[in-house]
């Protein structure tokens, strides 16, 4: 009796639909790698929102949208004979096998940190030392995320503080330097302060981007409560006193 892998059937269906769209749809036929890049970024942020909202059905939907984009890129690549879905999938499979020698080889990795160290060492070996440890961090990545990734990568090759107390000392040092800085140096010192806080967050197993987004969501919810209060009273925000706004804000926190 033949077995039927529904995963492969679903993936083949998407590939077949992509072939149809590329051949028959005027819009899909016009797209290039460059033209859909910004749409992919937008879809990625939509997935991020769904994850932060813990909306499982929306996560599934956004994953589908991203999967479409990946197949789209592979289809375009196949038309120019640069790459195709087969080479893309085989490439990532080979990379995963190479970089997980504790699974597919005889290397021991007792915890997740060891796995990360092995990954970076193998990655450096693959580039034969020609690339920086930080070269895998995209220049266009949002600054807060970029700072986190650079610090993680540097730490994985031993460039790190001995303990979190010294990391916090650095935060306090940068805060003092910011306070004492003249106007022309304030921005740079503020960047140093944020960078040191990002580093301390790493030591506390806190994702600073997630933490800031949670605060953004709280601010939005509480500020919108003030707007709703003003609307219910038939007044504008400018007609409210700061004390009135603060009272509504505190109520929204509960």
Secondary structure: elements and pairs:
Elements: H1 6-24, H2 26-30, H3 37-52, H4 56-79, H5 85-98, H6 101-104, H7 112-126, H8 143-156, H9 164-180, H10 186-203, H11 208-233, H12 242-253
Query: Main sheet, how many strands, which sense, barrel?
Result: none
What's the total helix number?
Answer: 12
- Approximately how much beta-strand content do the residues carry? under 5%
In CATH terms, what is the fold-level topology of the domain at 6-82? Helix Hairpins
Give the CATH class of the domain at 6-82. Answer: Mainly Alpha
Q: Please report the distance between the alpha carbons of the first and last residues.
A: 60 Å
Along the chain, the helix and strand elements come as HHHHHHHHHHHH
Residue share in helix: over 70%
Write structural notes for this entry:
With 254 residues, the protein is mainly α. Among the domains are: 77 residues, Orthogonal Bundle (Helix Hairpins); 44 residues. The longest helix is centred in the last third of the chain and has 26 residues. The protein is extended, with a radius of gyration of 25 Å.
């Amino acid at each position: 009796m033949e077995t039927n892998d529904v995963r492969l059937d679903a993936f083949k269906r998407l590939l077949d639909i992509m072939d149809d769209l590329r051949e028959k749809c005027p819009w899909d036929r016009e797209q290039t790698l460059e033209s859909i890049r910004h749409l992919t970024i937008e879809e990625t942020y939509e997935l991020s929102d769904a994850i932060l909202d813990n909306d499982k059905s929306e996560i599934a939907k956004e994953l589908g949208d991203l999967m479409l984009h990946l197949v789209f890129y592979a289809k375009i690549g196949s038309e120019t004979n640069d790459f195709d879905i087969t080479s893309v999938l085989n490439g990532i499979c080979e990379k995963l096998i190479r970089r997980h020698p504790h699974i597919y080889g005889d290397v021991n990795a007792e915890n997740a940190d060891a796995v990360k160290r092995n990954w970076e060492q193998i990655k450096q070996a693959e580039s034969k030392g020609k690339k920086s440890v930080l070269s895998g961090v995209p220049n266009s990545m949002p600054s807060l995320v970029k700072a986190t990734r650079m610090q993680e990568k540097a730490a994985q090759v031993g460039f790190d503080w001995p303990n979190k107390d010294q990391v916090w000392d650095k935060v306090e040092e940068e805060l003092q330097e910011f306070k004492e800085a003249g106007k022309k140096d304030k921005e740079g010192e503020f960047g140093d302060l944020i960078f040191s806080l990002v580093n301390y967050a790493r030591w506390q197993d806190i994702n600073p981007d997630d933490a800031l987004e949670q605060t953004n969501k709280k601010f939005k919810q509480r500020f919108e409560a003030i707007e709703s209060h003003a609307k219910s009273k038939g007044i504008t925000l400018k007609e409210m006193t700061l004390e009135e706004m603060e009272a509504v804000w505190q109520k929204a926190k509960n």
